[in-house]
Amino acid sequence: MRNLLIFMALLVVLPSCSRVTNAVSGDAPTTFEGIRFKSKLSASSDDRRAFTVNVTPFTVNPRAALESGRYEATKYCLREYGGSDTDWTVGPDADPAGFQPVNDTVVLSGRCTQS
């Protein structure tokens, strides 16, 4: 009976572990203005402070998509360097009309500047 209870508890707990792992690793979709965005950050191999963020879907709500990218970058800079200061090359404050999405995905790029 005890083993059955332990097994049942594991069945309840284990599925949530992947959600926690995804949220920490940055693979989980984020929600802005009620829309789920998939934002994936990749750090440069030459300079780990430099990164790009791919965000999709862009055309549903371009401004919210850009904020989703900012959020992902802020998480990265805070986690890795202890601050959210970012020098954007192509950033979320730009006019959304200036972006040319490919497959409904835009790419933001920047560099964490916290020392």
Question: Can you walk me through this structure?
Answer:
The chain has 2 helices and 5 strands. Residues about 15-25 have low confidence and may be disordered. It is globular. Strand 2 (about 35-45) and strand 3 form a beta hairpin. The protein has a 5-stranded antiparallel β-sheet with strand order 1-2-3-5-4, covered by helices on one side. By secondary structure, it is α+β, with helices and mostly antiparallel strands. The longest helix has 24 residues, at about 1-25. It has one domain. About 40% of the residues lie in helices and about 25% in strands. It has helices at about 1-25, 60-80, and strands at about 30, 35-45, 50-55, 85-90, 105-110.
Q: Which spans of ≥5 residues are poorly predicted at pLDDT below 50?
A: 16-25
Radius of gyration from the alpha-carbon trace, in angstroms: 18 Å
Shape: globular
What can be said about the biggest beta sheet? 5 strands, antiparallel
Q: Strand order, biggest sheet?
A: 1-2-3-5-4
Percent in helix = 25-40%
Secondary structure tally: strands: 5
Order of helices and strands: HEEEHEE
How much of the sequence is in beta strands?
25-35%
Quick synopsis:
By secondary structure, the chain is α+β, with helices and mostly antiparallel strands. The chain has 2 helices and 5 strands, in the order H-E-E-E-H-E-E.
